[in-house]
Every structure is written in structure tokens, then in C-alpha cells.
Fold this sequence. Notes:
Blueprint: H1 3-13, H2 52-59, H3 73-84, E1 95-100, H4 103-109, E2 124-131, H5 141-158, E3 162-167, H6 172-182, E4 188-197
Antiparallel strand pairs: 1-2, 2-4, 3-4
This protein binds flavin mononucleotide.
Flavin mononucleotide binds next to strand 3.
Amino acid sequence: MSANSLENRRLVLTGLLAVPVGLALTGAPARAAGPGTAPPNRFRGGQSGSNAALNCLMTRRSVRSFMDAPVSGELVRRVLAAGMQAPSAGNERPWQFVVVTDKARLASLAQVHAYVHFAAKAPLGIVVCADLSKARLKGYWPLDMSNCTMNILLAAHALGLGAVWTGIYPEEERISKVAEICATPEGIVPFALVVLGHPAQSPSPQGRFEAARIHDNKW
Ligand SMILES: Cc1cc2nc3c(=O)[nH]c(=O)nc-3n(C[C@H](O)[C@H](O)[C@H](O)COP(=O)(O)O)c2cc1C
């Protein structure tokens, strides 16, 4: 990784990196203001101010190449804590996690489908699983699991790690292959495999804001 990209990463972590012009939403206050007070931090003209959370989500990209260094247990715990903090329907929190560091098992996961081959060279994979025994509200658990997985990606980025969501659910064949590799019991559905580690690449933020997608009051 270049000194420049390392420096950018450090700035992201400290919340000092301004989101590139054109990435930011317009108009929305960054924090709710109390009654009668001006919002302390507004987006203006494509600027995000110094909001570290927004900088994190606006600069996150998928990372698929990692250094050999292991990820510390403390970093894994913080990433998982962020996953468990996700909103879920009825606050059911229907998640369980299989943390995979074993090289042979990572190599098996890397063969589950064509788009996860890089897991074989990663130090860590987190199989984010749905626990159907905790998911009582019909139809909501995939949404809960998506929120959880997204929180994990954002936390990884905020902590200076690189990560990518690789798809398992809703592909039946992938679900059963991962369930076998990770020996998950009945009622536990592998939902996503987050491959992560210390990044060996630093993809640039991408502007994806499209004003034409926004409709005022009616379509
Ligand atoms: C549900 C889902 C499944 C995905 N599956 C894969 C995958 O199997 N392999 C992969 O390399 N990336 C996968 N991705 C990552 C996307 O390719 C990536 O998020 C997208 O190209 C946007 O790029 P960005 O994450 O850098 O913003 C997946 C993302 C999501 C949300």
C-alpha cells in the first residue's frame, strides 16, 4: 500500500477526510437539532463537515486483497459488536456468527462459488448466520441480517480493516455448502460471508449520488 493511501486511511479513521465533492447528500442535517436551535452541522454544497460516521460510510469500498497479518481478537470483537448493534424487526436480533481463521476451512469457503476465491488468501472470514429460532416475525429476518452485515462492513472500515460481503443467501447451493463447511446445526442459515483483514488495496471512494432518483412528494 502506498504511503499516500495509508495516510488517507488514517484520515478516514480520525474523521478528518472530507468526503469528495459530489459524494455527499444535500440538505439533510447531520444531527437532529433541539427545538429552536440551529442544527450544529449541516451538509452544505456537497460538504459533509467533520462527521466521522458519514465519512466512513461514504468512503467504504469492498476490499478483496489482504496482508498476511492476523486480525486481533479485540478488532474481531469490535466488528462483531457493531454487527450485533444493528436494528432488527421487533428487536429480535436473529444473528449468530462463525469466525473462521483456520486456513483449510477458509480454502473450502473460497471454493463455494466463483466470486469468493480470494477468501483462500484472507486471514479471516465471518460467516453471518440467521438463527431461525429467534426470527418470529415472518419475512423480516433477511432484512435484519442485511443490516447486521452492513454494520460489520462499516465497522471494519472504521477500524482500518478491509472487508467485502460475499453472497450466500438466498442461493440454496451456497447455503448448504457453507453449512456443511462450518457444521452449522439445523435452523441456522448461513447468510453472508464477510471476508476481511488488514487491507492490501485501497479502492477510491465512488460518487453514486443521483438527484434523478429522488421524487418530491409523489413520483
Ligand atoms: C448481497 C451482496 C452480495 C455480494 N456478493 C459478492 C461476492 O460474492 N463476491 C464479491 O467479490 N463481492 C460481492 N459483493 C460486493 C459487491 O460486488 C460490491 O458491494 C459492489 O460492487 C459495490 O462496490 P463497493 O462495495 O466497493 O462499494 C456483494 C455485495 C452484496 C450487497
